[in-house]
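Sequence only, no structure available. Ideas?
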Amino acid sequence: MLRTTDHCKEYKNGNIIIKYDRDMIAESKRDSLLTLSSVLDEIDCSFIGETYCLNNYETGHTVYNSYSDLVYIFAWSELEALEAGKAVKLFARKPDETDRELIEMEGM
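Reply:
I predicted one. Tokens follow.
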């Protein structure tokens, strides 16, 4: 394991596991975006760009890890799993050209 916080574990391959505790679940039910953003911030991650379609039924958002220089796709449907106390795994990949443009535009 590379890094760990109360709500996140980052592995050497760059993958991240997020899991809310009871307090975070309650916070997320009040403001899910703010809660998720603060948890991601614990491991130097933030959203970049805009939400986009993943398929006909789901949307997602790109997350950038400034510590590891990796990106992830967060499917918004995973908020339900987090709020149910389940762990969510984000799979790391190296940023492509489009990701790099977003990272530059966001000033990271």
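Helices lie at 22-30, 32-41, 78-83, 97-105.
Hope that gets you unstuck.
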